[in-house]
Specification:
globular; 10 helices; binds orotidine-5'-monophosphate; TIM Barrel
């Protein structure tokens, strides 16, 4: 059976990569009802962001905690249990078998969905080679998705340029979440494997993670609405 389709508004996840809770509160206030799903990673998480996550959840928003866990199984399972108790909707782990198994065990019966990060969107073949991996990006992503599927992971984080092959390998069950999304003309920054919101959805992504093109925009709400309009256009032509 395939996973239920996400609510259209939940397809855009805004990465609150900001240095303080005050800065995050101000962006969230400007985005208002436009955005329903937020991601909190290292920068905000290590600056009081977990308390802010609780507030967002209390206000009816969905929260993705992105700490990309990778440690011994016991530590991962217990960390994930704490994220489940927080009420997070998504959490990331690196796509190593012990780590993925521990995370799936740690979430217990909670609705938290565990996403396995395959190969970071800032990596290309040369970066993997430099880090000592034998395979290129495509073969490493394929291997990790196969392992994740075997373990029964809830979802995959991958580049939008990998989404079509990931969907084919993952099957219909399992969410595909793609960062590395750049509207036409937006600066890539440190991202190497990117696509537009339209292309990412057409390639099979369920959720798009967008940070700087929205939070660093002079008008974050207009930037978010533009991404949502592209998502809607891509869904209408799928
Ligand atoms: O797990 C993630 O969300 C993630 C995985 C990945 O491969 N690449 C990636 O960029 N991300 C996150 O997605 C967000 C992208 O932000 P922008 O590049 O500003 O849109 C950041 O918060 C990253 O931490």
């Amino acid at each position: 059976m395939s996973a239920p389709l996400p609510d259209p508004r939940d397809r855009l996840i805004v990465a609150l990569d900001l240095a303080s809770v005050g800065a995050a509160e101000s962006v969230v206030a400007r985005l208002g009802d436009t955005v329903s799903f937020y991601k909190i990673g290292y920068e905000l998480g290590f600056a009081g962001g977990l308390g802010f996550a609780r507030e967002l959840i209390g206000d009816g928003k969905k929260v993705f905690i992105d700490f990309k866990l990778h440690d011994i199984g016991n530590t991962v399972a217990r960390g994930v249990a704490s994220l489940a108790a927080l009420g997070a909707s998504f959490a990331t782990v690196h796509a190593y078998p012990q780590t993925m198994r521990a995370a799936m065990e740690g979430k217990g019966a909670s609705p938290l969905r565990i996403l396995a990060v395959t190969v970071l969107t800032s990596y290309d073949d040369a970066d993997l080679d430099e880090a000592g991996y034998r395979g290129d990006v495509a073969s490493t992503v394929a291997r990790r998705v196969a392992l994740a599927r075997e373990i029964g992971i809830d979802g995959i984080v991958c580049a939008p340029t990998d989404a079509a092959s990931v969907r084919a390998a993952l099957g219909a069950k399992g969410a595909i979440v793609t960062p590395g999304v750049r509207p036409d003309g937006a600066a890539a920054g440190d991202q190497k494997r990117i696509a537009t919101p339209f292309a990412a959805i057409r390639a099979g992504a369920d959720h798009l993670v967008v940070g700087r093109p929205i939070v660093a925009s002079p008008d974050p709400a207009a930037a978010a609405r533009a991404v949502q309009a592209e998502i809607a256009r891509a869904l209408a032509t799928s």
